[in-house]
Structure formats: structure tokens, C-alpha cells
Amino acid sequence: MAGLEVGFIPIEGGHYYRDALEEVVRAEDLGFDSVWMEEHHSVVDHYWPSPLPVLAGFAIDLIGHARAFLLLAGFPLLALLALASGRVPLPAVSAAPARSGPRVWSLLANRRLRHILIVSAVFNTAWDVFFFVAPIYGVQLGLSAGTIGSMFGAFAAATFLVRLVLPSLARRVREWTLVAGSLVIACFVYGTFPLVAQVPVLMSLAFVLGLGLGVSQPMVMSLLYSAAPEGRVGEAVGVRTTILNVIQTTIPFLSGALGTAVGVTPIFWTMAVIVAGGAAFARGRR
């Protein structure tokens, strides 16, 4: 039949990844036109709850890192082309009136706000270190890019699921108690992760870490809004964003240097100590 295209859905699950990759390669050899990925949440057997990291892993394994990154670069390129076409309306921008007042960095003199920014920095360091160091550890174990992507898919699913129940938790538990508990979870995962080599266990730990760190953004922003002086919430958010950008710039460099010198295990354990300190710090806040 003219114009008929045939798709293919591989078997799913983190521990079936190699079989799924072989099926994809075989499907391409047989002339299939496409591969479909399903998205599963709240199911057992390590199904893929976040298919995009898995698809990125497939691309790396099938066409190599360079071509996979070029493929990924196509998505922001499409967005740029859409903006350049003028068909996507953008809101008008008006210049903000000049005003005199305290400098932005004077917000750091606010003791309560300063404590929130410290905890926010710990959370985001824990988040960035995991996404930088976990793939290195996976490569050392001989895991494929797709398997590592599946691990991050489990992490992403956990952050999604925990935020579904977070409003209910926040009504029953104090914000700082939730923050401290999530950092305790992160401490456990960071201390355990480099001791494990089995893929299902690594995916389970990534899922548990996602449950802990998934609390960070909503809780920190809630605390930030309540602590910021009246009329200066935007400035407080800007200070937090600046601190996070500094962390995102320095953590890969520091992690890479430390990993080259002593390996990734000390990085995981150092991070476990840092988040443990953050949990102790948060536990004493009101």
C-alpha cells in the first residue's frame, strides 16, 4: 500500500535495555520506519517513566555521541526558527522605572533568607553532582548510554511523583522538617551509590534520590517567598538564581578534577557529608 509506514514498540524495562536496543537495531535492518516509546508511571519492574533520557541513550549507542548531540541541537534550533519566523507572538517589554532603594545583595543581611539560600545551594549541588558523576560511574561499570539514561529516567519520574503528593505532605509536616528529611534521603543515596554495581539497584537508588531532591524546588521557593521582604521577592529569586548559576559553572570543573585525582567514590562520599551537614543545619531552622 502506497504511503504505508510501519512502527515498532520495543520491550521496556531497565534490566531489558540491551534486548530493547537489539530489537531497535533489528527493526531498522528490517526496514521499520519508526520506533515508539511508551511512558509509564507508578509501575513496577523498572519500566521507563521518562522516555526522553532513554531515547537519548539509544541515539548515543546507535549513531555515536557526536551525531546524537547534533540531533539534540536540532530541537533548540527549531525553537529559534519559530521565533525568527515571527509567528510566535512575544509579550511587549517596557522599561522598568528607575527607583532608589537598598542594593540587591543587602538581602543577604536577612538572616532567615540567608539560611534558605544556603540550603538551596546544598540542594542544587547535590542535584548537579549526581547528574555529572553518576554517568562517569556508570561508564566505569561498563553500562551503556541507554542504561544510564534509564537511570536518570527513574530519577525524573520520582521528582514528578513526589510533587504530586507534596501539597498533602506540606499540610501535615513543617517545611523545614521536609527539607531536612529530603537531605537525609540524599545522604543515604550518596553514601550507598558507589558501593552498588547492579543496574536494578542503581535505578532504585536514583529513584529514591529523586524522591528526596524532588522536594527541593517547591519547598525552597515556598520558604523564599515567605522570607523575602515585601516587594523584593523578585530580587530574592534573582540572588538565588545567581548562586545556582555559580554552582552549575564550578561543580563540573571541581568534580572532574577530583574524579581524575581520586576517582568518583570520594566525590559521592564527600557529597554525602555535605548533605548530612545541610540536613543538620535545616533541622535547627524554624
Architecture blueprint of SSEs:
Blueprint: E1 7-8, H1 17-30, E2 34-35, H2 51-63, H3 65-84, H4 111-140, H5 145-172, H6 175-192, H7 199-213, H8 216-227, H9 233-262, H10 265-283
Parallel strand pairs: 1-2
What is the strand tally? 2
> How many H/I helices?
10
What fraction of residues sit in β-strands?
Answer: under 5%
CATH topology of the largest domain: Growth Hormone, Chain: A
Question: Percent of residues in helical segments?
Answer: 55-70%
- CA-based gyration radius: 22 Å
Which architecture name of the largest domain does CATH use?
A: Up-down Bundle
Reading side by side through the largest sheet, how are the strands ordered?
1-2
Say which CATH homologous superfamily of the largest domain is assigned. Answer: MFS general substrate transporter like domains
Oligomerization status of the protein chains? single chain
- Overall shape: globular
Mean pLDDT across all residues, rounded? 81
CATH C-level category of the largest domain: Mainly Alpha
